[in-house]
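USER: Study each token:
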Amino acid sequence: MQAPEPTIAERITEARGQVTKGEIDAPAFEHYRTSTAGTVAEVAGLLWQNELYLVDVDPTGAGIDKKADKKLVTDFKALLQARVARALTAKFGDLIKQVSTSGTKIGDQVEAILKESPMWAEGTVTDRLFVEWVGPVPVSGRSPQGTSDLWAALRRASESSVASKRADHLSKTAVKALDAAEVSAVKTLLNPSTDWVVTAEDTANLTDRADEHADPRGRVGHHQRDHPPIKEESSGAGVLGDLPEPVRRDSHQAHVDLLPGQHRRH
């Protein structure tokens, strides 16, 4: 004789045990780091459907006839979300501690990021570091508590490396070594422009346009050059010599308008 299907009350009781024992804490972070919205509610929903096997139970209690069962479900949903919030905040706290003792690792990550990215601002580099340490999850005002603290910790830990690398690559000596005609072409193209130069593709396109402007007969493309493309973003006076301010196209100047630790995705 086939055993009867467990009741909603029995299933919620079993799921509650998993949550209170902390069995969903680690999976919660894994879901968070690849989530679309990066919210506690989204992570709880993913746990509800996967680890807790409640895909056929509506967390709002819709479709449940018994009032007592409906209350069990909605109460458990609140419990789950509270546990997810605590678990994620605790994980961010652990990561902040790791950041504080990972100077060499972060320095290496900054170097790799600056080689790949056309942007040099601390905020932009911190965005990339957040992806390295957590994942490509958006950070916003709806993010779990502790998210902005981790972002801020990564920024503090990377500031000296970013400043040092930027000073090396954007020093007056380094700028003087660039092709004067190309520098002039970049100035001519950027001065009247209202578009941000943000992505690697943007920089590659600008470099090719500058090549064409400097020599209409044709110069090497960005994939053939023997020196890095010009970086359009800079903080720090004088690193670009006599280039005017409009040459600086930093989408992360807008960081000051965001919530603490909030960062943009490009």
